[in-house]
C-alpha cells in the first residue's frame, strides 16, 4: 500500500481543538503538495466527533475519530492505541502531533511500534529531497538542528506558535474508528483532574511568562500583568523584591534563589534585571523588558526593550494583542 | 587588744566536721573537674591554638579580672564586678586566716586586725550588693535573654545566704561579746549585732551564733561540693576558656588536612568537635548576649547562638561522661539541632565578639555547617552557586570570558597582569615589569552591576593617584570564600589552590581587594594553603593615598552628600579590625558630616549578605537587610556609605523596600571618586 | 522498593562550545555534566528510598567519561551504578539509546524506573516513553509529585491547566518534571567518596544488543545541518514612541513577528 498524505493527531482542551492543532493542520496543508496526498486529522477523546468540522475549516479533508470512554483523560497507552488506529487507517507519509507531554509520549510510542524515526519540538518544516527537513532547538536553545526521518511515516511533534493558521478549508469527512485497547496499557487509573486558572500555571513549564518586579508598585497593580497573562495563556512570575515585599508568594519567584525558567517569551515588567534575576531567566528565547529606568541593566540583554511606565504600556499591549488575535 | 578568737564558740565536733566536709567537698570538686577534662579530651585534637603566653595573660587580666567585655553592659558590669571582687576578697581573707588557724602563725591582732576586718566588711557588702543587683535584674526587670531556671535561683539564693549568714555570724558574735568598740570597723556586723541585741541577750546570741556557724559552714561546704554541677562552674571554665581560647587569625576557618582521606568533614556527632570547642561549652552562663547580638535571631530566624551552645552542651553532658563503654558515635548533634538553625547563620561574628567568657559559637556553627554540606543536606540556590563556583569560577553561572566586561564595556582600559608580566617569561627567570598592586576585583565587582561601579571607581582613583596596579582579567577565578563559609571545605581547597597558582605566577608587592570577603580569605584563609601575601582593602590603600597627598580631594567641590552614615562591614570590621580608614575617607569628603548608627564598629549589625546568605534561601523571618537599612535611614543621613559590595547591594535593596528614593547607598570609593570630579 | 534511574552525561550548555562542521557533533573538550533534568530523578529516587527503603541504581549509557555523571549520582546517595559502554553504541540516536537501556533494564530487578523528562543536549524527550513501550510497562510522564504505597504509585502529572492525579501499579516508568524537588548538593568530597560504591560496566554483548538497532546502523533520523544561535546581546530599545498605545503597538509588532504570541 503506498503511503500518502499528512495526518495530524489533534489535541483537545476545554472541548476545543488547541491552537497548536489548528496550526499543524494549516502547515500540513502548505506541505501537502510537496508530500503528496491529503491532509487528515485524528481526533482522540470522549465526545470529540463534533470537532471534525473545525478541523475541516482549517483544511483537513478526513477526520478519523476515536470517540471512547477509555480516552476521557489522557493515558499514555490507550491514546497511543488510538493514534495507531488513525495511522493505520490513514496510512500517511507524515504524522504531526503537538509538542505537549501527551503528544511527545504518543509520538515516541507510535514511532517505536512502527520502528520509524521521530523528531520532537519542531519549529520549522520544509520539503526536502526524499523526506521533510525538520528544525528543532537543542543545547538549551543555542543550537538549531535540522533533521530528517529516514523512513515513512515521518513522525514530528510541533512546537506551539511555530506555524500560522490558515482557514478556508471545507468539510472533513468523518471516519469513526473502533479500537481494541491493550489491557496492559490500562493499568494506570485516573484519580483526579485538577484545573487551575492560567494565572497559576507552572513557571518552569510555561511557554510564556509575564513577570513583575518592584516597579509594579503594589500587589493590586499586578492585575494588569495578570490580565495580559490570561490573554496569552502565560504564567505569572515575580522578582525577589516582590516576594520579599510580600506581594506574591515565593512560588512566583523567578531568579537565582527562585525558579530557573526558559520560556519562549519572558516579559519583564518593572524588573531592573539584577544578576540574581538574570540567572533565572537568561535562557528565555525572547526577553521583553518594560521599565521606566533607561539605565536598568535588563536592557543590556533584553531582545526588545521599551522605556516607559508599565502601568500604561501593559494594558495598552493587552488591548493591542487582543485586537489582533480577534481579527486572526 | 583588737582581735577575736578564731573559731570562737565552735564546738569540737563542728570543727572536725568542717575539715572533713571541706576535704570531701574539694575531693568531689576535683573529681568532677577531672571527669570533665576527660570529656573534653574525647574531642578531636585542636592543633596549636596560636598566640603567645603574654597575650593570654593579658586577656585573662582584661576579661577575667577587669571583665571589660562583660562590662560593656554597664549594669551587668557593676553587678558582676561587685559580686566577683567581693567574693574574691572574702575568699583571700579566709585563706589568710588559715595560716593562723592551722599553721600557727600569729598576726591576727592590732592594726592588722582592724584593716583586715574593715576590708572584709567592705568586700562582704560589695558582694551582697552585687548579688542583690543580680536578683533585681533577673527577677524584677526580667530581660528576655535571662532564664529563670532552678540553677539561676539556686545561684543567687545561695550566694545571698552565704553573705547573709556571714554578717549574721559577725553580728551575733559582736553582740555576744558586748560590742567592743574596735569592732566598729566591722560596721555591717556591728549594726546587725545592735539589731539582734534588741531581741535577745548574750547567751541566746551565743546559741544563735553556734547554729548560724554550723549552717554557714554546711552551706559553704555544700556550695563547693556541688560547685561544678551548678552555674558556678563558669568560675572555673570561664577563666580557663579565656586563657585557652583559639588565638589563630580570627578570620580563618579551621583547616581540614587530608580532606580526601578524612571520613567525615565537620561536626555530626559530639566527638567531632575539637576539644577546645567542647571545653568552652561548659563555660556558658546563659547570659544571652550572643542571642541578642545575632542578626539572624533579630530577623526572626530560628538561630540562637546560645541555644546551639546549650544544645551541644546537653549532648556532651549526656553522652561523654567517663563511662568508656558509652559509645559517643551516636551522640548526634542533629537530633537536637535543626538544619535551618545552621543555615540561618551569616557568620557575622557578633556572637563571638559579645561573649564575656570567650566561647566560640561561630566555630561550632561552622563545623556543624560543614557536616550538613558534606552530607548532602544543602539544596536549592546555594547548591547551584557552589556548582557554579566549581565549574565556572564564579557563583552566578556567568562566563569566565566576561570577567573583564566591567571595564571593557565602560571603555575603561585596565592593565592586565598577564600582559604586563608574561608568565612564561617570568618562569624562565626574566625580570618582571614591576607592579605594586595586584588588584583582585572579585566576582561581585566583576559581574554585579552595582558592584561593577565600585570597581570602576577604584580604578579611577588608582589612576588619579598614579598607583602601579594590574588585574588578573579573564584569569581571575572565585576565591571560593563563600564556599568555605557554606561548609564546602574541599571546594575551597581546590578552588583556592587554583587561584593561588594563578596569582603566584606574578610578582607584586601587595594584593588590593575591594571586597572584605576577598580580603579576609586571601589574608587569613589562604596562608593555610601556603600563600604568603600582603593583602589590603581598598579603604586602607585609599586612606594612605589621601594622607600622602597622592589623592587630593578639592575642597571647593560641592559634594552631593551632607550627612553620611557609614555601615561597618562584618568582614572588614569585626574580622579584620578596620574601622577608622573608611571613616577617615568619609570625613575627607567635602561638606560631609559623618553620623554614626547606634550599632557600629565592633557592634555593627550585619547586612545579611555574609556566610553564603547571598545565595541561600532562608524563608523564615524578615530579611535582615530591611532591618539594617532601617537603622541606617533612622540616622537621617542622605547617603549610606559602605565598604563592601555585598553590604552595598543588600542595603540598597533594603532602601528600595523602604521606598527611600531620596537616599543613596554608595561605596566609599564611589563617593571619593565622585568628589574628585 | 528498588528504583533504577536512567541518567545521561551531557555537555554543559553554559560553557563555551563549538560545533565541529562536517559531522555536526560537539567539541567534547568542554565540561561534561550530569544532565540537570536527571538530577531531579536521582533526588526523587533517593527521597523514595529514604522513606521506603530499598536500593537506588543508576543506569547510564555513554563513553568512559560518562562515569563522572554516575559518580555524581552515587555521591548524591544512589547505591550502585551500571554503565553501558561499547563502541558499537556510538552515534546512537535517542531511540537506539532507549533500546540499549531497555536491554540493560531487562537484566536488572526494579519496581520503578525514573528518568528526567529530557536531556539538555539533544532535547528529544523520547527516552522515557520509548523505554515504557519497549519494556511494555505503564508510563507516566511530566510528573510533579510521586508517592508510593505498597505496590501502587501515586503521581501527579502536570498539564497546562493544572495536573492529573493517577494511581498505577508497579513496575512502571515515570519521568519527573523539572522542579519536582530540589536536588541535593553532592560535595566534592562526597563525589570522591562515591568511588567506593559499586560501579559495574556492561558491554553490548552482555545485554544482548542487536547491533543493527544501534549506532549509525540503527539510526532512524539523521542530522542534516546545525547552526549556532548567536549569544544574547542588547537588543532593540525603544524610548521615543509617542503615546503608550503607540509603544505598545510597536511591541506587539515585535511579538507577532517573532511568533512568540
What CATH architecture label of chain C applies? 3-Layer(aba) Sandwich
Describe the main β-sheet of chain C briefly: 9 strands, mixed
CATH topology of the largest domain in chain B: Fumarate Reductase Cytochrome B subunit
Quaternary structure classification = heterotrimer
Query: In angstroms, what separates the terminal alpha carbons of chain B?
Result: 86 Å
What is the helical fraction of chain C, as a range of percent? 25-40%
Spatial strand order of the main sheet of chain B: 2-1-3-4
Q: What is the CATH top level name of chain C?
A: Alpha Beta
Under the CATH scheme, which class of the largest domain in chain B?
Answer: Mainly Alpha
Overall strand count of chain B: 8
Strands of chain C, count: 15
Give the second-level CATH assignment, the architecture of the largest domain in chain B. Up-down Bundle
CATH fold label of chain C: Rossmann fold
In whole angstroms, the N-to-C terminal distance of chain C is 45 Å
Largest interface: A-C, 93 and 84 residues
SSE order of chain C in H/E notation?
A: EEEEEHEHEHEHEEEEHEEEH
What's the pLDDT, averaged over the residues of chain C? 88
Tally of individual domains of chain B: 4
Question: Strand order, biggest sheet of chain C?
Answer: 11-10-9-12-8-1-6-7-13
Backbone shape of chain C? globular
Protein described:
- The complex is a heterotrimer of chains A (about 325), B (about 675) and C (about 260).
- Chain A folds into 2 domains: about 5-185, Rossmann fold; about 200-325, Rossmann fold (3-Layer(aba) Sandwich).
- Chain A contains 8 helices and 18 strands.
- Chain A has helices at about 20-35, 50-55, 75-90, 100-115, 220-230, 240-245, 275-280, 310-325, and strands at about 5-10, 10-15, 15, 40-45, 60-65, 95-100, 120, 125, 135-140, 145-150, 155-160, 175, 190-195, 210, 235-240, 265-270, 285-290, 305.
- In chain A, the strands form 4 sheets. A 7-stranded parallel beta sheet of chain A has the order 7-11-6-1-4-5-12. Chain A has a 5-stranded parallel beta sheet with strand order 15-14-16-17-18.
- In chain A, helix 3 crosses helix 4 (about 100-115) and helix 5 (about 220-230) runs parallel beside helix 8 (about 310-325).
- The longest helix of chain A has 18 residues, at about 310-325.
- The mean pLDDT of chain A is about 90.
- Chain B is mainly alpha-helical and about 675 residues long.
- Chain B folds into 4 domains: about 10-240, Fumarate Reductase Cytochrome B subunit; about 255-375, Alpha-helical ferredoxin (Fumarate Reductase Iron-sulfur Protein, Chain B, domain 2); about 390-545, no CATH class; about 565-675, 3-Layer(aba) Sandwich (Rossmann fold), CATH 3.40.50.
- Chain B contains 29 helices and 8 strands.
- Chain B has a 4-stranded parallel beta sheet. A 4-stranded parallel beta sheet of chain B has the order 6-5-7-8, with helices on both faces.
- Chain B starts with 11 loop residues before the first helix and ends with a helix.
- The mean pLDDT of chain B is about 90.
- With about 260 residues, chain C is of the alpha/beta class.
- Chain C has a single domain, classed as HUPs (Rossmann fold, 3-Layer(aba) Sandwich).
- Chain C is about 25% helix and about 30% strand.
- Chain C is built from 6 helices and 15 strands.
- In chain C, the strands form 3 sheets. A 9-stranded mixed beta sheet of chain C has the order 11-10-9-12-8-1-6-7-13, sandwiched between helices. Chain C has a two-stranded antiparallel sheet with strand order 2-5. In chain C, strands 3-4 form a two-stranded antiparallel sheet.
- Mean pLDDT of chain C is about 90; it is low at about 15-30.
- Chains A and C meet through helix 3, helix 4, strand 7, strand 9 and strand 10 of A and helix 4, strand 9, strand 10, strand 11 and strand 14 of C.
